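Project outcomes to date are best conveyed with an example. Our students and postdoctoral researchers have been running inverse folding experiments weekly, and each run begins with a structure described purely in tokens. The record below, which covers 894 residues, was selected by the lab manager from last quarter's runs and is presented without edits.
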């Protein structure tokens, strides 16, 4: 059941349906794959691939615009330090939205009978669907971004209803959380509509002729604050146990058995909780979409909350409407008997998420390590399981030290079987391990150990504090390093720093807990990027047997030696090798001068842009028929391929202000300009009207709008202005001065991808990694050179960079590969290359200029540079650095 050999490692790569994981041997892929997967998924994956490859043919204009914005446009997210980072949605998130849009827009899937058309197993029947309204289920592994999918689906529904005349979707949303923990998390993302503006959910105003951001008018109401003040534009965020119709009595945290409150069984006790009857709210609105987070709770048509959703739908039917869509997102859309929800339309399984480093890799003790553990004969819980607790602490301590170097706190998570033993373990940890004294958070409130709400009084205040403490445990200011709990945290507790799980309980079938839910508490990653991270799982034989059952889902569990004397399973940390007594760090250190920038932008020069003298090739102004004028064709600016076509009705023709605004925003985004929009807008407006085409044009005429959608016109506007602005605003200072020094030994620890490295003796760093094999070879060469005092790989964390003007005329940063310290206070900057690109000559010219500037303004250190091409290096085999320096002194084009 291994992954297909062609399965890509990047979570952003478009996944072909033929390489997706399925629960059988690879030899059965051709004959049995569709029968072994969620019944609708195999066919839908193929159909959605065709839909994607066609440029979303059949989708509404609104859906096409949003899909293209989300998944085809580049997105730069501003950071607090003034820089920007590129943002991309995972393919799993993309496929989920594409599938939803395909089913709604193209297929028009309204009910179970429409979905059954995609059954590839031949076993699905109408009786397997409990609902009679439109319901789609998205299956995504814990930590792969279900909340982002919810935000995209919500925005899609809102704009579809707003912009599409015949839309059956909604601008009111009931967002349901299974418990208070999940509700807190969603509220944090949705509060002040944060996720919609922080992520690129909303297109820029002017994109495809719409004012998206201005038109996105929503108000969030949480829990008992839920009310209707407007007919549309409402997000009702509530706990699932608050969703009930007037004649139902929902479970309460004050019931004798609070398991019902959290796991969904019908209660028998009384309730004093304040609640909101959502059926009353529905009376005041005409449209509604429901989004369920962790939706595996809605697995039984007899449950009160399922009947409440049914009641909401029926009330809308009475008013001539219907529930527009119920969208469920969960990692485990399964019934108690293990059968998957037949409504599942998209699937990103845990095995794929682990393979693509979207989540942590579970690691278990190997056989010799497990054989050292024994359950002792004792009535005292902590004495019985002392070996398992001790091993968990040992493993946690090892990774705690590694993560602490990076400013992160590793968290230990211990699961027990009841609250009494929970307290016993907490006391054991605090009394036996000094580093855990006053650092253990115990989470249980009643007989089952769940965090719950309370109606009033001191208990409620204590529970609010407990929730806050558990949610903030990742933070360095939190005193807690370990959590001890009963069954608790089945889902929704989304802290990222759990690195060690200790299980001291077995799960019975009736608990309805799945191994992916147990591991899920430690799967979320601590670091961004494709860095491999790990969660170590130790526990009793019964617990480990339960965890290992996840292998049926294709997850390959890594096993390693654990205990005293073994290496930690933690991310690869690069740090100053201070603990190496064989190194003189001070002698190996290298001081790198930091110069003031040589190139900069003079934003005030934008006003000097002469649109009549840009030197572009004028575009022929075409004359389109009235029907063609309504057809707006969008093409990829790099390939020229048609991405989508929009047919505008009379009322929907874009005004020229929005189109000009879009071009201005595109140019500013590409050049990373942060000011000057008003000036640039006026320049582009004049250019389009008077200079772009072979004749002056009327900006308000539909024929002009149609011409502006042609690739030649679009590309001419964007590329001409980028080139002109770079030529006008990018300026070079005549000189530079030293403003600071970088000391290598001051570099903070940082984490890198798990990859090949060498352990150097001549570097302040503990490891040298290479972006290519040649860089490792070259580092090995420097180690052997007797005329090299020290050297360092120029990691991003060193922050030694040179500003330069790239091949596109834009300001960019260049990070040389190596810094080498030679006798006589000489420092040589080395650039190594396998294959060269267009920017290499520009980078080398800038590096040469930097060396000249340094040597001009100071004499303490002599700086030089050398370019080392792989082909020449392998051909001539220099014996020492002096030979290399002479033979590769200057870059051939510098």
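After processing, the design step wrote out the following sequence:
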């Amino acid at each position: 059941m291994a992954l297909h050999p062609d399965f890509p490692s990047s979570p952003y790569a478009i996944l072909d349906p033929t390489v997706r994981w399925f629960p059988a041997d690879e030899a059965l892929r051709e004959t049995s794959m569709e029968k072994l997967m969620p019944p609708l998924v195999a066919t839908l994956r193929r159909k959605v691939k065709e839909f994607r490859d066609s440029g979303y043919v059949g989708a509404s204009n609104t859906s096409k615009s949003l899909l293209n914005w989300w998944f085809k446009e580049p997105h730069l997210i501003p950071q607090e330090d003034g820089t920007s980072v590129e943002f991309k949605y995972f393919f799993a998130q993309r496929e989920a939205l594409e599938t939803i849009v395909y089913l709604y827009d193209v297929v028009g899937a309204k009910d179970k009978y429409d979905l059954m058309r995609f059954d590839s197993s031949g076993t699905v029947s109408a009786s397997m669907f409990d609902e009679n309204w439109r319901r789609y289920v998205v299956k995504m592994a814990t930590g792969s971004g279900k909340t982002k999918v919810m935000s995209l689906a919500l925005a899609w529904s809102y704009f579809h209803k707003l912009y599409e005349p015949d839309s059956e979707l909604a601008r009111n949303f009931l967002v349901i959380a299974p418990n208070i923990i999940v509700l807190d998390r969603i509220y944090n993302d949705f509060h002040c509509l944060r996720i919609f503006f922080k992520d690129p959910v909303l297109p820029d105003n002017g994109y495809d002729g719409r004012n998206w951001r201005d038109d996105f008018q929503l108000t969030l109401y949480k829990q008992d604050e839920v009310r209707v003040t407007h007919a549309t534009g409402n997000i009702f965020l509530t706990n699932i146990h608050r969703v009930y119709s007037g004649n139902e009595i929902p479970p309460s945290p004050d019931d004798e058995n609070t398991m019902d409150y959290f796991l969904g069984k019908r209660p028998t006790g009384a309730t004093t909780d304040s609640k909101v009857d959502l059926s009353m709210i529905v009376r005041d609105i005409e449209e509604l979409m429901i989004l369920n987070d962790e939706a595996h709770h809605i697995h039984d048509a007899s449950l009160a909350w399922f009947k409440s959703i049914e009641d909401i739908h029926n009330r809308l039917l009475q008013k001539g409407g219907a529930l527009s869509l119920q969208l469920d997102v969960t990692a485990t859309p399964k019934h108690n008997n293990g059968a998957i929800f037949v409504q599942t339309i998209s699937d990103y399984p845990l095995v794929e998420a682990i393979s693509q480093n979207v989540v942590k890799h579970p690691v278990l003790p190997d056989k010799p390590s497990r054989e050292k553990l024994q359950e002792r004969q004792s009535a005292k819980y902590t004495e019985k399981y002392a070996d398992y607790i001790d091993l968990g602490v040992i493993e946690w301590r090892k990774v705690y030290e590694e993560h602490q170097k990076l400013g992160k706190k590793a968290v230990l998570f211990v699961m027990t079987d009841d609250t009494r033993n929970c307290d016993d373990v907490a006391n054991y940890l605090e009394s036996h391990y000094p580093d855990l004294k006053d650092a253990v958070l115990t989470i249980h409130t009643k007989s089952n150990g769940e965090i719950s709400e309370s109606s009033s009084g001191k208990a409620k205040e204590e529970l609010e504090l407990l929730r806050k403490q558990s949610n903030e445990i990742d933070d360095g200011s939190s005193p807690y390093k370990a959590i001890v709990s009963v069954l608790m945290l089945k889902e929704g507790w989304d802290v990222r720093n759990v690195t060690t799980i200790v299980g001291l309980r077995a799960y019975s079938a009736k608990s309805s807990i799945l191994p992916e839910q147990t591991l899920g508490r430690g799967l979320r990653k601590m670091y961004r990027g494709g860095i491999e991270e790990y969660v170590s799982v130790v526990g009793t034989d019964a617990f480990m047997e339960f965890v290992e059952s996840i292998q049926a889902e294709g997850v390959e569990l890594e096993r390693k030696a654990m205990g005293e004397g073994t290496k930690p399973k933690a991310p690869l940390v690069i740090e100053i090798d201070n603990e190496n007594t064989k190194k003189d760090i001070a002698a190996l250190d290298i001081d790198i001068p930091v110069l003031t920038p040589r190139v900069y932008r003079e934003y005030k020069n934008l006003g000097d842009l002469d649109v009549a003298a840009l030197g572009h090739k004028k575009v022929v102004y075409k004359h389109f028929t009235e029907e063609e004028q309504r057809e707006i064709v969008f093409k990829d600016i790099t390939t020229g391929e048609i991405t989508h076509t929009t047919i505008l009705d009379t009322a929907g023709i874009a005004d020229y202000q929005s189109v000009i605004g879009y071009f201005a925003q595109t140019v500013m985004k590409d050049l990373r300009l942060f000011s000057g929009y008003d000036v640039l807008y006026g320049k582009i407006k004049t250019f389009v009207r008077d200079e772009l085409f072979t004749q002056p044009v009327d900006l308000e005429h539909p024929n002009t709008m149609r011409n502006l959608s042609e690739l030649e016109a679009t590309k001419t506007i964007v590329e001409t202005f980028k080139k002109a602005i770079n030529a006008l605003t990018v300026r070079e200072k005549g000189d530079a001065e030293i403003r600071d020094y970088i000391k290598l030994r001051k570099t903070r620890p940082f984490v890198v991808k798990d990859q090949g490295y060498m352990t150097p003796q001549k570097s302040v760093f503990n490891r040298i990694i290479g972006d290519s094999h040649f860089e490792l070879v070259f580092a090995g060469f420097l180690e052997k050179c007797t005329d090299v005092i020290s050297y360092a790989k120029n990691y991003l964390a060193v922050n030694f960079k040179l500003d330069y003007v790239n091949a596109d005329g834009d300001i960019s940063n260049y990070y040389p590969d190596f810094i080498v310290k030679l006798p006589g206070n000489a420092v040589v900057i080395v650039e190594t290359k396998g294959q060269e690109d267009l920017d290499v000559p520009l980078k080398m010219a800038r590096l040469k200029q930097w060396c000249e500037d340094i040597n001009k303004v100071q004499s303490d250190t002599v700086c030089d540079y050398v370019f080392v091409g792989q082909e020449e290096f392998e051909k001539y085999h220099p014996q020492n650095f002096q030979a290399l320096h002479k033979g590769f002194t200057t870059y051939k084009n510098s």
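The two ends are 54 Å apart (CA to CA). Residues 175 and 237 are 5 Å apart (CA to CA). The training component of this project remains on track.
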